[in-house]
């Protein structure tokens, strides 16, 4: 028979190992977990914590936790948290796809000050409260509380729908600037961060960032953010409730320029995307005045690592500057850092971007010197199709042969100059 613990008044748990197969609160009873204690629920069923006429668990410390040995159970697991203002802020995990048998959940919640510094003075599970919209801390757009829901010992974590209770009157009041109806849940990913990243005030190195993904919707009547649907891969442990007009994401992991045979290659990666319509690559020769170079389609909404790449065949031999602009579906824009590239080489002579149609051949020549070239096109039998001269200058040059009659087949292109020679096979399909 399962053990049943009836709580009818304040119950202090000052020690670190107490196991119950079922915990029942009667008549709005209280349990206060303190001194880094664990309350262990050794029963995976959703009714292993039950309230009759209400119930309350006071945590208020990252390390004062409820450890629930959920295992491979499903169903709505409710932890009846309450804050020090006697306001109920329950956390619910409705498991829709079970994890493996040996896994367990760790629950805790703790209030912060208005700048979301941990309260009391215990190191929080997050490193920054930075916003992509402001150069400084954006804590005033966040409810003054952290939520920890940690799945441990799972080879595959459960998939679930989460719900977060909140106290808007006491934990989102002035100087916070929050629209209650705008509240959504946001998670912290400790595994993503920029190289040598510093906190919002620039004073310390940090790792991890808030991902640009928002979950759930606010019910202002019940004071809960409900219906935060979380897949197994997205089950992260640290959460906040944020005004969705000012989320706290940093999604771009890197933006860099490299050289590949004299061609500038731009690479960037995102850890997550929310309403990302597209990127605009902008280019400059002086690092001050930029103009659009190309548009690269974004991935909309994603929680996976996505790598992007663009090759600038039009780059000159001199230094070029690039910056990346990200545009949301609603038109909001964000600029990222400027990178530079000097793909110079005294031996540089590159032919690319060949384009065939029935009557013309067009290609690009990237060279480090001015030169007169003889351009010849032969069919596969060796018959001369075109023979022209062209003068190319240092940098990128477009050459086009017109008035041709091109059928399907294999052709040979040769380019001969005083300093450079080039030959390649071309296929017309």
Outline the structure in words.
By secondary structure, the chain is mainly beta. It folds into 3 domains: 4-243, no CATH class; 252-341, Immunoglobulins (Immunoglobulin-like), CATH 2.60.40; 349-428, Immunoglobulin-like, CATH 2.60.40. It has one helix spanning 168-171; strands at 4-7, 12-13, 18-20, 22-26, 29-33, 38-41, 49-52, 55-58, 65-68, 75-79, 91-97, 104-111, 145-152, 159-165, 183-189, 209-215, 217-219, 224-230, 238-243, 252-260, 263-270, 273-284, 291-302, 306-312, 320-328, 333-335, 339-341, 349-356, 361-367, 371-379, 384-392, 395-401, 409-417, 421-428. An 8-stranded mixed sheet has the order 3-6-9-12-13-19-15-16, with no helix packed on it. Strands 10-11-14-18-17 form a 5-stranded antiparallel sheet, with no helix packed on it. A hairpin with a 4-residue loop joins strand 28 and strand 29. The chain starts with a strand and ends with a strand. Mean pLDDT is 80; it is low at 1-19.
Low-confidence stretches: 1-19
Global morphology: elongated
What strand order characterises the main sheet? Answer: 3-6-9-12-13-19-15-16
**Tally of individual helices:** 1
Q: Sketch the major β-sheet.
A: 8 strands, mixed
Structural class, from helix and strand content? mainly beta
Number of strands: 34
Helix amount, in percent? under 10%
Radius of gyration: 30 Å
Please give the alpha-carbon distance between the first and last residues.
77 Å
Number of domains: 3
Average per-residue pLDDT, rounded, comes to: 80
Strand percent estimate:
over 45%
